[in-house]
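Key result, reporting period 2: structure in, sequence out.
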């Protein structure tokens, strides 16, 4: 499947498509991005004020946490899965914007280079105060069109990225991947490749040439959730995508995802989400009518 690349769209405040501020106050995800694996042609830094929504970055399922900063770069694949409201502020910017006014050094900041392939920064109470103040200044400047707008935004963004890069080095430096972390990533990669055919931990343990018990212990220790839950999460994400974006009958979806019959797929989906597939499809589509 070809992964679409979404460009940074212009708005009334910035006409060059190089910088944009997103303020979500109980908003739902845009229909064009919901359950669609995609890349962006820009960097994104987001402060999440309310958690609970599940999202995927490079096919790793994460639960967005309250008062946490998330960041992505143009190489990472993103999937927005959950149909829940979001309170957050996001700053989107291109490589070209970072290079304005001789600021090419920003491209070498740890948060931008992201050598550890991270996506999450835990914030202390003091961090939140600093980040909120900078986001407020950026929001004010963003709405003041004029010859100084870009310079001021670049100045505030420089401070924000520098501050977050310090937190990045504190959180990630020295975190070279252990053998257990490498095994978790290999397991997740195998799930993404074979989830439609194989639904059991034993299958993936065989592919990785280890025992199911060892795989389960390592995955639970490294991710905090059972190995089988990783498989189920991937199946649910694809189920939701097919239910929302296609008109395929439930029988065809269940067959495509490797379920022996539709009734088993119905029970699995309801157990994992609390809704039947048909109810989820109706409710999700009703929200965008």
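The corresponding designed sequence is given below.
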């Amino acid at each position: 499947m070809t992964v679409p690349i979404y460009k940074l769209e212009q708005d009334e405040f910035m006409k060059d498509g190089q910088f944009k501020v997103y303020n979500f106050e109980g908003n739902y995800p845009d229909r064009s991005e919901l359950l669609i694996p995609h890349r962006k042609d820009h960097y994104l830094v987001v402060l999440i004020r309310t958690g609970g929504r599940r999202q995927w970055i490079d096919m790793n399922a994460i639960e967005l946490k309250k008062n946490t900063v998330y960041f992505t770069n143009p190489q990472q694949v993103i999937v927005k899965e959950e149909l829940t409201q979001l309170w957050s502020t996001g700053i989107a910017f291109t490589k070209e914007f970072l290079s304005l006014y001789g600021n090419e050094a920003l491209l070498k900041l740890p948060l931008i280079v992201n050598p550890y392939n991270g996506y999450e920064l835990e914030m202390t109470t003091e961090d939140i105060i600093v980040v909120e103040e900078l986001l407020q200044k950026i929001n004010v400047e963003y709405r003041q069109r004029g010859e100084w707008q870009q310079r001021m935004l670049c100045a505030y963004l420089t401070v924000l990225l520098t501050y977050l890069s310090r937190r990045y080095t504190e959180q990630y430096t020295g975190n070279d991947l252990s053998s257990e972390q490498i095994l978790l990533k290999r397991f997740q990669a195998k799930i993404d490749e074979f989830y439609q055919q194989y639904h059991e931990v034993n299958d993936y343990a065989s592919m990785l040439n280890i025992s199911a018990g060892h795989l389960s212990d390592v995955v639970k220790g490294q991710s905090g959730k059972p190995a089988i839950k990783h498989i189920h999460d991937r199946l649910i994400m694809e189920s939701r995508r097919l239910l929302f974006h296609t008109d395929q009958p439930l029988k065809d979806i269940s067959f495509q995802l490797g379920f022996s019959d539709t009734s088993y797929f119905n029970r699995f989906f309801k157990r994992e989400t609390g809704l039947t597939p048909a109810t989820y499809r109706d409710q999700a589509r009703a929200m965008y009518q």
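Strands lie at 5-6, 19-27, 39-40, 43-48, 54-57, 60-63, 68-72, 78-80, 86-93, 120-122. The chain has a mean pLDDT of 92. This case is discussed further under Risks and Mitigation.
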